[in-house]
Amino acid sequence: MMDVKTVFGPYAHERNSISRTMGLVMVALLPATLFSLYQFGWPAVFLFVTTLLACLLAEAFALRLAGKSSKTFLMDGSALLSGWLLAMTLPPWAPWWIGVVGAFLAIIVAKQVFGGIGQNLFNPAMVARVALLISFPFEMTLFNHPVPMFSEVAPGFMESLGITFGGADTIDAVSSATTLGHLKTEVGRGIGLTEASQQGITLWQMLWGNAAGSLGETSALLLLLGGIFLIYKKIITWHIPLAMLGSLALMAGIFHLIDSEHYVGPITHLFSGGAILCAFFIATDLVTSPVSLKGQILFGVGCGVLVYAIRTWAGYPEGVAFAVMLMNACTPLIDHYIKPRIYGRDRKGEPLNLESAVDR
Amino acid sequence: MISAILIITVLGIAMGGMLGVASKYLAVEGNPLQEEIESLLPGSQCGQCGYPGCSPAAEAIANSAAPVTLCPPGGKALAEALAEKMGVSIDLSSVEEKEPMVAFIHENLCVGCTKCFKRCPTDAILGGSKQIHAVFADACTGCEKCYEVCPTECIEMRPIKFTLQTWYWPEPARVA
Amino acid sequence: MSRDIFKLFKIRGGVHPDDRKELSAGQSIEKLPMPPLLHIPLQQHIGAAAEPLVMRGDEVKKGQILARSQGVISAPVHAPTSGRIMGVGGYPAHHASGLSVRTITLKPDGLDRWIDDLNPAEDPFSLSPDEISQRVANAGIVGMGGATFPSAVKLNLRNRYQLHTLVINGAECEPYLTCDDRLMRERPQQILAGVRLMAHALDVDKVLIAIENNKPEAQAAMREAAAETNSVTVVGLPTRYPMGSEKHMVQTLIGKETPARGLTADIGVVVHNVATALAVRNAIFDGHPLISRVMTVTGDAIQQPRNLEVLIGTPLSHLVEFCGGFKETPERLVSGGPMMGQPLPSTRVPAVKGSNGLLALSHQEIHDSQEMPCIRCASCVTACPCGLVPLEMANHIRGGSLDTSVKLGLLDCIACGSCAYVCPAHIPLVHYFNYAKGELAARQRAQHKQGETKRLAEARTERMEEIKRAKREAMLKRKREMEAKKKKEQAEKEATVGAES
């Protein structure tokens, strides 16, 4: 008669794991990333690879320090994803050390110091981006027009190495402002939007990604596709993206109706400045967003409103990172106050009384 | 300038006076906290905490001279209740839950001396002089007082046995 | 009423596990040959253990009562066959703990002779509700879906609640299990008779037989059987775990939520399992007590999965042997379904009234994986049918603050396992909840004991002081008496001296 180990159930499990979740998010990011890398050429590829490698190294170092199994935790894909998202928010032709410093900030400061995977209060990629933006405003706001790989204007392989690693100043030749940055400057100069946007970028350019901006800000359509894939795969729910984009569009719509010369319209807001990337990939970060569906809607609305407010009235035209971090800070509060209703109890947690139960 | 000094002086005197009166008329005899704590403790005066009884132990806790985790028979639940009363936070996961024990008398060795019987703080030992004694497990607090005095060492402290009704799953093992 | 127009209500949460019912669903119910020994535990139900009425060496007949019920919530046990009692004592329980429990061991004589006074009801439907529930109690029938709550107690709910509907639970939402499915396919008429008897005992005129849509044959068989009965409706339920949870099933069917800490009877509904209905029919029509049940023996580690009718007390090893033994060493042995079933340490333990399945699971099919930290993905929140936040509850339990987890709804958890099933970090959430519930109950018991011992200690101190005071008083009294005596003596002495002088 043999004895079998008794382990608590259930004895069936969905075929999922943390690495699968992270992997699916990366798959969803892949089309937009590949297209953006193509658009911005070799320097973007170098920066992207450098950032990812730096993230993995930082994670391995921190795990070693903490005495955790690097095999299990390095392979869970979370560090890779953080690096990926960070790289998506950097100016494509930024020098290599921006990526490395960003990786250090994201993995060590924003994630491992808090206790590693699942413990961080703020989205690591956004912490890194905000810290970089404040510390290196010049490098972080130097955007360039897309110069598709292998096209005539694109820098060659060696030249690109120079841009990323050598600090070559070829970038000046092609530098350009982002859509929102351009419009904000123009409005600040007293020029009406109608006039400003004539020299600006068309909607099609924004959708397709043929505009200046960070890697992940540009191809809104492909990002949207990736986001829908994630919802289909049930990695995220529709609540945060819809709430965020909806509230952003609503705010933009209202103010645009009031004064169309001073306030940018909803379409531009939605498809520029990384709003799509944020709505589907960053605000929905599992660790730093609320757990209840109602809480997620509130979180999304908060993000949308803050994005609009920061873009419109604050000093940074690209307000996404700040908005997400502010809402991350509210997540514990939202989770504390907004919980699903427990079966058989009312919203206050008291057992349903029978009369009302019968009425329902 | 003068008026300010005056106002502050008057205020100071008035408030000082009020404090003096309050300390005289609203004085608290003893520490009410101590009594509240004592009411939480098991009250079997077993002395396992190192204090001579529950009342001195309560005093020590009230004065923060002893940790809230001092009472072995109370276990985690008591530590949690005391921590809440004292308004301190403790890491309960580190509190080692001592396995609850009860005394068991080996009848073949018992000589019926009644020493244990007299010592038991909860009258959990049954039997009279020159009779074999037995322990009523439901009333035994595991204080080991009888265990110490038995001349024939016939008392054994045994862990309380689980039954199908009382058994439950142990806490899941922790991962790193 | 047909299925098309029966309106169902939505419940929240739930999961869709791979049901694996194809392993055994095609196997008709077979009678297991008589085992050499039967081990009949005295505790096969929720409530007080039964009290043995037989001794070692007694000869018993099939259906004879072996132990009588003790108290209101209890159930008797009967001899599954005729034979000789080999002893009454400890034997490994059908339980995860591996503890032993008082068990009657019976050696079958192979004659399988029934007792003489079976006393079947001549006209079952003329029995009064009280008579029906009395017969159900005497037959030792308990909830056979796994809850093992004495059925007669549930039939008596009509005395305290206003009931309107009887729901028969044929959902069998646990993966792998097919015993209820087979019963409904093979014995629909008998089940229906039991159902009608229970409706009669509860005095309700509406009966819903709820069967998940993944069992079309069972639905068809029950519909056919119920075609002539107006009050009985067979309802198809969406296939979703945990549809068979009593409160959730009632909500799906009638759209009302059972209040927390209440019973479905609070909203006028009583739920019984199909196998229980069959046992009730057998007890009343034939006078047979509950001495056997149908079990599914399945899993990838079993050579030939089967549905077996087994006598209560049959060692599980006997079942496995009949199914051709193990294909490979099973990674887990589970009593019940894979979601809520309890692990068993070995196949030595006997089959009991509440065991609906024995699963021998291989390493591949359990999808076990290393536990990781929680990433707050909220899958568990979405999956929970009770509206709880499992990740937070588990966090608090891990931190040792059980009271907070109770405030978060620990005691509203039905332990269905949906959260642990979907957790990508493979955190044993239900294990945490189960541990916390057990620990809280243990603390409650300890507190109760503490109160009692405190009372005893105080009584003793008082008594000791009383004795001391009595002693002191006695001493004082003696002293006074002595003094008085002395004085008297002195006075007398003086008097004599005076007289002499």
Quick overview of this protein structure:
Chain A has 19 helices and no strands.
Please characterize this protein's 3D structure:
The complex is a heterotrimer of chains A (360), B (176) and C (501). Chain A is mainly alpha-helical and 360 residues long. Chain A has helices spanning 18-66, 70-74, 78-88, 96-109, 124-135, 137-140, 157-166, 171-174, 179-188, 193-198, 203-208, 215-218, 220-232, 239-258, 266-271, 275-282, 293-313, 320-337, 354-359. Chain A starts with 17 loop residues before the first helix and ends with a helix. Mean pLDDT of chain A is 85; it is low at 356-360. In chain B, helix 2 (32-40) packs across helix 3 (54-62). In chain B, a hairpin with a 7-residue loop joins strand 2 (125-126) and strand 3 (134-135). With 176 residues, chain B is mainly alpha-helical. The model of chain B has no long low-confidence stretch (mean pLDDT 82). Chain B has helices at 2-25, 32-40, 54-62, 75-86, 115-119, 145-149, and strands at residues 101-105, 125-126, 134-135, 155-159. Chain C is 35% helix and 17% strand. Chain C has 13 helices and 17 strands. In chain C, the strands form 4 sheets. A 6-stranded mixed β-sheet of chain C has the order 1-14-13-17-15-16, sandwiched between helices. A 4-stranded antiparallel β-sheet of chain C has the order 2-8-7-4, with no helix packed on it. A 4-stranded parallel β-sheet of chain C has the order 11-10-9-12, with helices on both faces. In chain C, helix 1 crosses helix 4 (188-202) and helix 3 packs parallel to helix 5. The radius of gyration of chain C is 30 Å and the shape is globular. The interface between A and C is large, with 52 and 76 residues.
Task: Provide keyphrases for this structure.
heterotrimer; A: 360 residues; mainly alpha; 19 helices; 63% helix; 0% strand; globular; B: 176 residues; two-stranded antiparallel sheet; two-stranded antiparallel ribbon; 6 helices; elongated
How are the elements arranged and paired?
The complex is a heterotrimer of chains A (360), B (176) and C (501).
Chain A: H1 18-66, H2 70-74, H3 78-88, H4 96-109, H5 124-135, H6 137-140, H7 157-166, H8 171-174, H9 179-188, H10 193-198, H11 203-208, H12 215-218, H13 220-232, H14 239-258, H15 266-271, H16 275-282, H17 293-313, H18 320-337, H19 354-359
Helix pairs in contact in A: 1-3, 1-4, 1-7, 1-13, 3-4, 3-5, 4-5, 5-18, 13-16, 14-16, 14-17, 17-18
Chain B: H1 2-25, H2 32-40, H3 54-62, H4 75-86, E1 101-105, H5 115-119, E2 125-126, E3 134-135, H6 145-149, E4 155-159
Antiparallel strand pairs in B: 1-4, 2-3
Helix pairs in contact in B: 2-3
Chain C: E1 30-31, E2 38-41, E3 51-52, E4 59-60, E5 65-68, E6 77-78, E7 83-92, E8 100-108, H1 129-138, H2 151-155, E9 165-170, H3 179-186, H4 188-202, E10 206-212, H5 216-226, E11 232-237, H6 246-254, E12 269-273, H7 274-286, E13 292-298, E14 306-311, H8 316-322, E15 332-335, E16 342-343, E17 357-361, H9 379-383, H10 390-398, H11 402-407, H12 418-422, H13 429-500
Parallel strand pairs in C: 1-14, 9-10, 9-12, 10-11, 13-17
Antiparallel strand pairs in C: 2-8, 3-5, 4-7, 5-6, 7-8, 13-14, 15-16, 15-17
Helix pairs in contact in C: 1-4, 3-5, 4-7, 10-13
